[in-house]
Amino acid sequence: MSLLLHWIIWAIYAGATLFYWRDFIGAERKDNKLKLNLLTAAVILHLVFFIYFLSTEGRLYIANVSEAMNSFVLFTALIYWLLEKRLREPSMGAFILPILLVLLAISNFLFVANPKIAEVLHDFKFEIHVLCMLLSYGAFTLSFIASLLQYHLERELKKLTMGVFYTRLPSLTFFERISNAAVDSGLVFAIIGLGLGIYGANLVWDNLMTSDAKFSSVLIIIAIYGFHFISRRLLGWQGDRAALISIIGFIWILFSFLVISLVFTTQHQFG
Amino acid sequence: MKICLYIFTSEKPESPTSQHSDNQLKSLDSLVAANEWLLLNYPGGCELFLILDEDKKAPTSAEIIKYLTKIHPDFAAENGNKKELHAGQAVSHFLKNVAGLNIDATGKWFLEPIRDAFEQASEAGYTGPVLHHLFQKGIWLHEKIRMESSFFKFAIHQAAVLRELAGKIFGSVKNKSVHFIGWHEDFQQIVTELESDGAHDFVLHCGDVQSIDPRVKQSNISPVKLNGNLETADLIFIGAPQMKFQLQKAAINRRMAAQNNSRLLICNYSNDTDALQNVKRIYNVFSYEKSELSRLIDHNKSSRKAILQEIELWINEESQNFFQWLDSDKRFNFAGMIGASREMQRIFELISRVARTNITILIDGESGTGKELVARAVHKLSQRADKPFIAVNCGAIPENLLESELFGHEKGAFTGAEFKKSGLIEAAEGGTILLDEIAELQPNLQVKLLRFLQEGEIKHVGGTEIHHPDVRVLAATNKSLADLVEKDLFRRDLYYRLNVLQLTLPPLRNRGDDILHIAQYFLQRINTDFQKEVYEFSPEAKIALQAYSWPGNVRELENAIERACALAVGKSISIYDFPPALHAQNNKTISTEPELHTLKDAEKQHIMKILDLYNWNYEEASKALAIGRTTLWRKLREYGVDQKENQ
Known about the structure:
The structure holds 2 protein chains of 2 kinds.
Chain A: H1 2-25, H2 33-57, H3 65-87, H4 93-109, H5 124-159, H6 164-168, H7 172-205, H8 213-235, H9 239-262
Helix pairs in contact in A: 1-2, 1-4, 2-3, 3-4, 3-5, 5-7, 5-9, 7-8, 7-9, 8-9
Chain B: E1 2-9, H1 22-32, E2 36-42, E3 45-52, H2 61-71, H3 75-78, E4 81-86, H4 87-99, H5 111-124, H6 129-148, H7 158-170, E5 177-181, H8 187-196, E6 201-206, H9 214-218, E7 221-225, E8 235-238, H10 249-258, E9 264-268, E10 285-289, H11 293-327, E11 333-334, E12 337-338, H12 342-354, E13 361-364, H13 371-380, E14 389-393, H14 399-407, E15 408-409, E16 421-422, H15 424-427, E17 432-436, H16 443-455, E18 458-459, E19 466-467, E20 472-477, H17 481-486, H18 492-498, E21 501-504, H19 514-530, E22 536-537, H20 539-547, H21 553-567, E23 572-573, H22 580-590, H23 599-613, H24 618-625, H25 629-639, H26 643-646
Parallel strand pairs in B: 5-6, 5-8, 6-7, 8-9, 9-10, 13-20, 13-21, 14-17, 17-20, 22-23
Antiparallel strand pairs in B: 1-3, 1-4, 2-3, 11-12, 15-16, 18-19
Helix pairs in contact in B: 1-2, 4-6, 4-11, 6-11, 6-12, 7-8, 16-18, 19-21, 20-22, 23-24, 24-25
């Protein structure tokens, strides 16, 4: 039942993605409400599942890779939905939704019914740690998409090669603001998440997490986005330079996530 | 009806016929001898649109050239190409002109020249219901295209394209500083475009401040002596086609350092292609040659072309609708309203213009002038047409009930509230609500309505939850809200919120021939209802209809026709079938009327007539005049009429 529900949610996200793409590449920029309505339906259903799971199981849906990815998709979609509602700019949807769709599909394929959960994962502080990390990754994903579009648009503007991106996308400043705000808030969540992670790790593992690959990876992520923050303020790095740092940061997140999941399988375990 | 359009274009950018005096237009009117006509001038061309009777032969282009040459001697020499369009093609072309799809040789829309030409022709009486109808359709189409497509968002003039480019780079040019190095004739247009987007700081760097163009001196551009200081610049335009000029890298680097590397747009309008050589590779500098902008124009033109296919379908549909309308008997019918008078045509034009927007409209006018019909027309022509239209008479519902009727209530909010109920505002979700007799709204409801208009929020009576219904609000009143505001009987802030656009409906007595059109419309409808065969009015009846002052306006006219139709014997309505008030009026119109000088005289005379008609019964007379008893009494005192004596 739960897996079927996950696939239903995926299907609604997929419907929304289709409409976002259709409107993005269409000759006419249409304010088609159907795409946002579909996304709203998907987010609401996803959120209802998340809350229902919390109320029945007494824990957040974040205990394994599948659950964490699923919740990551929910938070990222929710942040994007709020952003679109506020800014009334749908162009980013066509790029962020496919990423979420792929992640949700992977999550569904990795789905395990009634997984064995270590006692520590029921701890409130641990849940906040994971929640903060997921929110920070969600924010960094948004920054990645905004930076990618900004970078591409900047190329088109400099060369005056006007394609569909020039026609559909808003201004460079728009993406820059979103990217900067996402990096700043993502950094805050990542630092809180890391702090709580260190605190929890000391309780469970009796030693500092120096040998944990995930810990090192998060330190590098914070370093990259911290440099993004500092270079903007102190070095006056704007435009494509800041966008490139954000893109590199997100590539690192994806790379480290894959490597840790596939290579360091014995690390970051609590059972 | 025959519809013909003659288009004359010239290689020269100036108009072949230029502007015409009223006398020239008068001469042309007698030459073309059309039912309705419109001459449109624009840079590089002119168009003559004719509406002729079916049996009349349409003039040839050569004949039209002859006519135009008569009123404008240089015309034949100046015009080059000619084109003739008839029927559907002519209508589509005209609709495109008014909708702003056609552009002149300088790349400007026809929208403004056609509006001016129409205004002039309308003033002189060369236009009639057909042209008015087409003009209104065109305006409506323009709004539809503006709201529902991105056609107009693709700029196709150089200055507008630059504004678009700056918008893509900066988001907005608001508060941006624009520097010109040397002057170029295109810069004035750029200033206008950027100024309209909020740029306010314009600096002209020039060799000699004293010898700059006088037009520049008149504008808000501050001239400074060329000194290489560009530190405050966000946009730089290089003009000075005569002098060899190269932008110094050091100056731009200083500017980048001063503004934390914020983006800088540089555009070279000078002939010197090396002007940007030094700065092309500087980080966050977007530099362009003037010639490169034409690529943007081409791109936008092709984007427009892609959208145009869909718009052509709208134009064709409206063109077909127009011919259906022309063949029907609804010639004076606009979205359910009848009116051929100039006042009503203006109202119809305004409705066409604002229907597709979401602005709040205050409709005022005497009782019975058709305020609800106007509201229905606005709804019918809006994007909300397939959603509910709800009319609420604020004066007819008791105050305590009105609040729950409008805003809804929660269960147990008051005695008898056994169920939770949504209000009429929520019931109109997605559609339009008309608040009729808005002046009767009580102060506490005025506050709630203001909150809804400002924030889009409502709360049920006895509830705490906030609802955000998507409803367009129209308000109607037969009182002067401005007067009520002055007397503190109506909230000033609500008045301004409601009065975004005011449509004042003229009383029937001021609508000339409309009375007969409306009477004929009612006669046809009532005939069907009563299953009678009364088809016309006798000549005396027509005179009586036009002579009467119709204090109750259209509503009174409808009742009079209904009565007359019920009493009529034979196929026509005679004067004796009308209510006595019309006879009395008719008798008086035959007698000599006192000479009227001022509006006050006319008002006094009208009030006295009505008082006479109702035997000085104030209650009846004030009702007929659609004013309060106190107002009537005040007016009589103002005129110095001895009331007791007359009674």
